Amino acid sequence: MAAKKAILIPIVFISLISLDPVAVVAYFGLYTLGRVIPIMISGLMLQDMRLKFSKGVLGNRSSSIG
Length: 66
Description:
89% of the residues lie in helices and 0% in strands. The protein is mainly α.
């Protein structure tokens, strides 16, 4: 599936070459933001879950020891 996306990206931007170069750069910037923002959000969610898991494990250890 990822290979299909990698093939489609250049085709989309090649079709935009006839447009104004500033528009092509703007579209590429919007595309990049559309790819980066979800990756950052999922990374932050994963980090939050790791912290919650670590606190839970440490909390269970301290309550079982004492």
